[in-house]
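Hi support team,

I submitted a single chain yesterday and got back a structure, but I'm not sure I'm reading the C-alpha cell output correctly. Could someone confirm the output below corresponds to the sequence I sent? I've pasted both exactly as they appear in my results page.

Thanks,
R.
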Amino acid sequence: MSGIPDPEEFRARARQWLGTVARPRTADGKWGSGSDSVAVFDNWTEEQEHAHTARVQEWERTRYDQGWSALHWEETYGGRGLPAYYEQLYRAEEAAFDVPHRPEIFPVTQALVAPAIAIWGTGEQKRRLLRPILRTDELACQLFSETEAGSDLAAVRTRAVREGDTWVLTGHKVWTSGARVATWGVAVCRTDPDVRKHAGITVFLVRMDAPGVTVRPIRQMTGGTSFNEVYLDDVRVPDTDRLGPVGEGWRVTLSVLAAERLDSGSLGLDNADRALDLAAHLPRPLTGGEQQRAADLHIRTLIQRLIGLRVTAALVAGREPGAEASVGKLYATETMRRTGDLVSELLGPSLVADTGEWGTYAWTEHLLGAPGYSIAGGTDEIQRTILAERVLGLPKEPVR
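Hi R., thanks for writing in. Yes, this is the structure output for that exact sequence:
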C-alpha cells in the first residue's frame, strides 16, 4: 500500500487480512466455555512460558513479514511510515480475532525498547538490532528496579566499571518480566558514584545468556513466577552495547518510562468487561448495591476508553502524551480495583472455594495480581506527582 490510507479504509483492510490468517473470536465466545483465566500476571512454568513465547513470536513474525507490524516505523526497519495511532487502529481490529495473547515482554520489546534504541542508539546499533527486535526474533526485558531503590530509579546501585572497550557490570535487579525468554536486558547502571545521582547513570544492552547473568524466578502469592530477579556478577559488556552517552542514562531511562505509561491506559479493560458479563449471567437477581457497582464499572470502562482516545489524539497532534498517560495509568489501576470489588460481591464464598465451577475461583488471580499495577510502570504516587507538577504547577519542594 502506498501513502497513508484513510483510517476506515485501513481498518477494513486490516479486518480483511486478519480474516485470512485467524479465526474470529465469536466462534467460541459463548459464556461459560473456553478459558476462564483472568490472571493479571501470567502464571506459567518456565516450560509453558517458553512454549507460549514461541507461539506469539510466530504470530508477530507473520504480522511483520506481511506488513501489519511496526506500522509507524520507516521502511528501512520493515515499517510503513504510518502515523503512530494506526497501531491502535490495528489493535482494535485484532481484538476481534483469536490470536495468541501477548505477554508483557512483547510490548516491552516492541513499544519500549525499540523506540529507545531508535532515539539513543548508534547507527550500527540500529542496523544490527531494530529489525530483529521489531520482528521479535530477539526479545528484550527491563533491568531497572532494585530492592534498595524502590520507585527512585536514580538510586540504582548496580555498578558498571569501564575496562578499555569493555564494561564490567555487578549488581542485582528485581521484578523483571520475561527474563527467562529474553535475548537482551536493558540495564540501568551507576557509572559515576561521585556526581549527583541523576548524572552518574549509564544504560547498557546486556545479553541475557552472557557469563555472569543469573535469572531466578520470584514466587508470587498467586503461585506463579512471571517475575524474576537477575544477578549480574562481573558481566562483561562491550562498549558497542552501551545505549546512549556515558552519564546520560537517566534521560534514556525516562524515554523508556514515558513509552511504558502510554501503553498502560488499556490495562484491566478485558477483565472489567468479563466482570460485567459475570454480573449479566449470575443465576440470581442482582442486589441494589451490586447493580450500582456494575453500573459504576460499566461507566468507568467507557471513560477509560475515552482517555485512551485522548492519548491517541495527542499522538496524532505530534505531542508526547504526558498528563494524559499519567491520568490513564491512574484510572486503569482504579478500574482494576473496582473490578475486584464487584466480583467479590457477586461471587461471595464461591470466589475462594475451588469447586471447579467455570468463572469463579479463577478470579482469585485478578484479586491477588491487580494491586501490583499500582506499583508497576510508575507507582500511583509517582503519577500523582507528575500531574501535580506538570498540570497543577505545584512546586517540587514543599513551601517552607
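A quick pointer for reading it: The mean pLDDT is 88. Let us know if anything else looks off.

Best,
Support desk
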